[in-house]
Specification:
The chain has a single domain, classed as Purple Acid Phosphatase, chain A, domain 2. Helix content is 20%, strand content 21%. The strands form 5 sheets. The protein has a 7-stranded mixed beta sheet, with no helix packed on it. It has a 6-stranded mixed beta sheet with strand order 6-7-10-11-13-12, covered by helices on one side. A two-stranded antiparallel sheet has the order 1-2. Strand 4, helix 3 and strand 5 form a beta-alpha-beta unit. Helix 3 runs parallel beside helix 5 and helix 6 runs parallel beside helix 7.
């Protein structure tokens, strides 16, 4: 791969984003009137922060320019968008009233994606929660995705909703000149937690995963790169991002028989043939590639900062089978989302874990820029100046589980939130901002 010039993102050329996005919008909402309030609170998993607060990113320092060019640039933004965003007015069953798009969302998604394009990435990663995914219900009785009065009809509605929203999501990247992201399954791709035994969402997990895979995975990855013969053959895979970098993307959601409440019906880890494939893939990759990166939706290590998240993580955390496999294989970097905030954890002898991303509809989107060099990985996290009007009403979703604000604004340009350098020996150095040690979590 030829060397590429490192280029910082710019804010120019964003005035025509609504046209560039190529999405229709029947109506424009009222003007923005509110800015997210900066607040923090202690949670069971660390420090809870609302999207839009200045937070620990205020101390971020740009990495020094060493004069060499990266061999690969990757941008990663888990939980983009964690909302159902798309135009349903073209569907045969549209009721003429409800829709999941407006001019504010067209413009805001355009600002974010144009900024990602300005990074000139060779690859884009999104480790789950692309959508809201509360499908198979119709709280407003719109009939837009068909009847949901029986389990079979509700599963069919899941398929129709997924085709619409995943399709709209993928087209956004294409319209902004970005490669289709390498994606992982998040909890919102399978109905959102919890999954109690006997629930519709637990029974519909195969339908949810098939809908996700058909829209976003398809035949992109060779059979030899997937755990063929397992239920994860369409949702876990590996790919070479470059001759130097291997990406392994894993589906960590393992349904299991359950009768209790909570998320008893779902285990978050790898097992059986899926785990054996993962171990073998990592071992072979470690022999072939300079850098091995794994992405999955949930963190293993903690505590981590959170913002508006249920705080899922791998069952048994650092003692999980998946994490122990990564540690044994000397994986360099584990990228996760779920918690809608940024934390880097570096422990001796283990992969570096970076949780990042955020709730787009609440102004919390962040992204990680990963520049790959022969002798290091440079990590920089960025966010946006945003405004969200929580009093403007909501963007239509199929359920009322989470009210998605109707009006929001992302200002063009990026704001540095954190920086760090990962060495070949696994040390995370030159750390600042959100990628500095999370000392406020000590003792939790």
């Amino acid at each position: 791969m030829p060397l590429r010039s490192l280029r910082t993102g710019t804010a120019a050329g964003l005035v025509a984003l609504a046209t560039a996005a190529g999405l229709t919008s029947p109506a424009t909402g009222p003007a923005l009137a509110a800015t997210p309030t900066a607040t923090t609170a202690t949670t069971a998993h660390g420090v809870e922060r609302r999207p839009g607060d200045g937070g620990f990113g205020d101390t971020a320092v740009p990495l020094p320019d060493r004069g060499d060019d990266p061999v690969l640039t990757v941008v990663s933004s888990p939980d983009f968008m964690n909302a159902d965003v798309g135009d349903v007015s073209g569907l045969a069953r549209w009721d003429g009233v409800h829709n999941s798009i407006n001019d504010r969302y067209v413009t805001a998604t355009g600002v974010v994606l144009e900024q990602l394009r300005a990074e000139e990435p060779d690859a884009v990663l999104v480790a789950g929660d692309l959508v809201e995914g509360h499908w198979g219900v119709d709280v407003d009785r719109t009939g837009i995705f068909g009847p949901v009065d029986t389990p079979a009809r509700a599963r069919a509605a899941v398929g129709r909703a997924g085709a619409l929203y995943f399709g709209a999501w993928a087209r956004l990247f294409a319209r902004h000149g970005l490669p289709l992201p390498h994606v992982a399954v998040g909890d919102h791709e399978i109905g959102d937690d919890p999954w109690p035994g006997g629930s519709f969402d637990l029974a519909a997990v195969p339908t949810y995963k098939r809908t996700f895979a058909e829209a976003l995975v398809g035949a992109r990855y060779a059979r030899s790169h997937r755990p063929v013969g397992t239920p994860y053959a369409a949702t876990s895979y590996w790919t070479a991002l470059s001759p130097e970098v291997m990406l392994v993307s894993v589906d960590v959601f393992e349904p299991r028989p359950a009768t209790g409440a909570g998320r008893d019906g779902m285990r978050l880890d790898l097992s059986g043939a899926h785990l054996r494939w993962f171990r073998r893939t990592l071992a072979e990759g470690r022999e072939r590639f300079r850098w091995v990166v794994v992405q999955g939706h949930v963190p293993a290590l903690g505590p981590v900062r959170t913002s508006g998240s249920s705080g899922l993580r791998l069952d048994d955390g650092p003692r999980s089978r998946m994490w122990r496999a990564m540690t044994s294989a000397d994986v360099d970097l584990y990228l996760a989302g779920e918690v809608h905030d940024v934390t880097a954890i570096a422990r001796r002898g283990q992969p570096v874990q970076v949780t990042h991303g955020g709730l787009f509809a609440f102004g919390g989107t962040t992204y990680l820029r990963l520049d790959v060099f022969e002798d290091r990985l440079e990590l920089s996290t960025y966010g946006f100046d945003t405004r969200v009007d929580r009093d403007s009403g909501t963007l239509w979703q199929t359920s009322e589980k989470r009210a998605v604000p109707r009006d929001l604004r992302y200002e063009p340009g990026r704001r540095l939130r954190g920086s760090a350098v990962l060495t070949p020996t696994g040390r995370l150095v030159t750390r600042s901002g959100d990628l500095a040690p999370a000392t406020e979590l000590d003792g939790r």
